[in-house]
Write a structure and sequence with these properties.
The N and C termini lie far apart (107 Å). It is built from 1 helix and 43 strands. It folds into 4 domains: 100 residues, no CATH class; 101 residues, Jelly Rolls; 193 residues, Exo-inulinase, domain 1 (Jelly Rolls, Sandwich), CATH 2.60.120.560; 88 residues, Jelly Rolls (Sandwich), CATH 2.60.120. It is mostly beta strands. 26% of the residues are buried.
């Protein structure tokens, strides 16, 4: 490109706005790309700067009328309009101006984000039982966030790996996908390469999988150091459980906590089932065999084989606390018609898990009537549909008069509120285990139990009650479960004392005492510590010569 030479006299001769030559000023000539004069600036003398702008036609523009500005093609870029200029884009559209909160004007601009979907780390191929998917190494240069979303019908582990060289994966963020919850995470890109992996956490194949990964150049990615649940680590204002129950702090700023105390159930040590702690509630050709730290309930090969085991003690319920059942159970696939149950239940009341062939249910029992919530209707984190595997799993049932909550492997399966009617006529329940063939089935089905117990979330003891007797009595001291702490004899003569775990004086007395006379007589007052539980009630029978104070829960 060539330009027309400029006369040197024009450069040195500077004119003021009256057209006469000015001193101590520098004139600049601006040429467009065609080589012709575009704008001639003339400066007056003095300290002030008064610039006169001439348009591309060489005519002078007044202070009230600014010159038009032309682009490299010689077409209009800025049109003069009084003292204001309008900017146009390459298509002739005016560029907008916006006002901020300080009443200042700025050009209206926008940021357009170029989000890319990753074909190397996205898939629609469903995973088989315990199957896995591994994406390919992909650069994160120019990427701020890695967005991963997924939908499938089986619980799945998701991993986002990052690497400096695309080979050694030194940084991994892992997430647990639960079928009942939407899943989408944004991971901050901190290294040069990344990949996405997914592992089916169940031994049941997925029927569909939609795993999608997108790369975002500009995004507010959350910090990489999150909690195990994927939440931000922040100061605690309030604490809630996964089912929304709040944790309380007392007026003395003490956190309300509870100690778990085992009430019923015993370890399966040795090869003999301890009849002091476990009893048979019904056996028909079935067998309960103990060995290697577990109890195996087998139906045997006779038609309609049945074996039912219950704990000798019940887990006493104390108002204001919750009880919970824990079972470490292996429930292999059954052959033929069969029902297996485990939980805190008797033949009339309680709460338990039930597997009936292909159906799996959470059950509440009230006065021998069972109410089932079966797979497909669950409302917990494990999804509406859930069936245990044939491997060992941990089953928990937390129960109180207002609600029962069922867990598997520490994940919420179902929450059952008691809204209009009780779920069980009593909360004092034994451990129950059952394996039962039906419809003439002769297959030997089993239920394998490593742990089965009931505990209370609360102290072992509650505040005691005191009652005195001074004459012969046959009285019900309490209906329901409790604990006899102590008997203090305040007047002793020949006589007897009997205490029954019942609401009448029948059955075997758990205290049957004949007071000695003569040289072996007790000296009153005499205190006898008992610390014995009762479950149905406490009935006391004494003779006329016995005066005593009874301390019990």
């Amino acid at each position: 490109m060539s330009y027309t030479p400029i006369d040197s006299t024009v450069l040195t001769g500077v004119l003021n706005n009256q057209g006469t030559q000015a001193t101590s000023a520098l004139q600049t000539l601006i040429l467009n790309n065609q080589g012709t004069q575009a704008t001639s600036a003339l400066q007056t003398t003095g300290n002030s700067t008064a610039t006169v702008v001439m348009n591309s036609q060489g005519t002078q523009a007044t202070e009230a009328t600014q010159a038009n500005i032309y682009n490299a093609l010689g077409t209009l870029a800025v049109a003069a309009s009084g003292t204001r200029a309008v900017l146009y884009d390459e298509s002739g559209n005016p560029v907008e101006v916006v006002i901020d909160t300080d009443n200042k004007y700025h050009l209206a601009v926008s940021l357009i984000q170029d989000v890319k979907v990753s074909a190397l780390n996205s898939t629609n191929v469903a995973l088989g039982a315990s199957g896995s998917y591994t994406g390919l190494s992909e650069t994160t240069l120019g990427v701020a966030g890695i967005q991963v979303s997924m939908k499938t019908d089986q619980n799945t582990a998701v991993y986002v790996d990052q690497s400096a060289d695309g080979t050694n994966w030194d940084v991994t963020d892992d997430y647990g996908y639960i079928t009942s919850k939407p899943f989408g995470v944004t991971v901050q890109a901190v290294s040069n390469y990344y990949r996405v992996r997914a592992v089916n956490a169940r031994t049941i194949p997925q029927t569909y999988l939609r795993l999608n990964t997108a790369l975002c150049p500009v995004i507010e990615a959350v910090p990489r150091t999150l909690s195990d649940e994927g939440n931000l680590k922040v100061e605690v204002y309030g604490i809630e459980s996964e089912i929304g129950d709040k944790v309380y702090v007392s007026q003395q700023r003490e956190l309300k906590t509870a100690t778990a105390v085992r009430l019923a159930g015993q370890a399966f040590s040795g090869s003999i089932l301890d009849a002091n702690f476990w009893g048979s509630a019904g056996v028909s050709s079935g067998v309960a065999a103990q060995g290697n730290g577990q109890l195996t309930l087998s139906t045997g090969s006779s038609a309609n084989g049945l074996v039912r085991i219950t704990s000798s003690r019940s887990g006493r319920f104390v108002a204001g606390n919750s009880n919970y059942y824990r079972g470490v159970i292996q429930c292999p696939a059954a052959s033929g018609s069969n029902i297996r149950r485990w939980g805190a239940f008797s033949t009339t009341d309680g709460f338990f898990f039930e597997r009936d062939g292909t159906n799996f249910s959470c059950v509440s029992r009230l006065n021998s009537v069972d109410t089932r919530i079966s797979t497909g209707s669950f409302n917990g984190d494990l999804g509406a549909t859930f069936t245990p595997t044939s491997n060992v799993e941990v089953f928990d049932i937390y129960y109180a008069p207002f609600e029962v909550v069922y867990y598997i492997d520490n994940e919420l399966l179902h929450r059952l509120p008691s809204t209009t009617a009780p779920l069980s006529s009593t909360m004092t329940l034994p451990v129950g285990l059952e394996c039962n063939n039906l419809a003439g089935n002769t297959a030997n089905n089993t239920l394998q139990v490593r742990v089965s117990s009931i505990s209370r979330l609360g102290d072992l003891y509650s505040d005691s009650f005191v009652r005195a007797t001074a004459a012969a009595t046959s009285s019900i001291f309490k209906y329901g479960a409790g604990k006899l702490h102590r008997i203090v004899f305040t007047g002793i003569a020949a006589g007897s004392v009997a205490v029954y775990d019942n609401i009448n004086a029948s059955g075997v007395a758990f205290i049957d005492l004949t007071l000695p006379t003569g040289a072996g007589a007790f000296v009153s007052p005499f205190s006898l510590e008992i610390m014995a539980n009762f479950y149905t009630g406490m009935t006391v029978v004494t003779t006329a010569n016995v005066k005593a104070t009874w301390i019990y829960e």
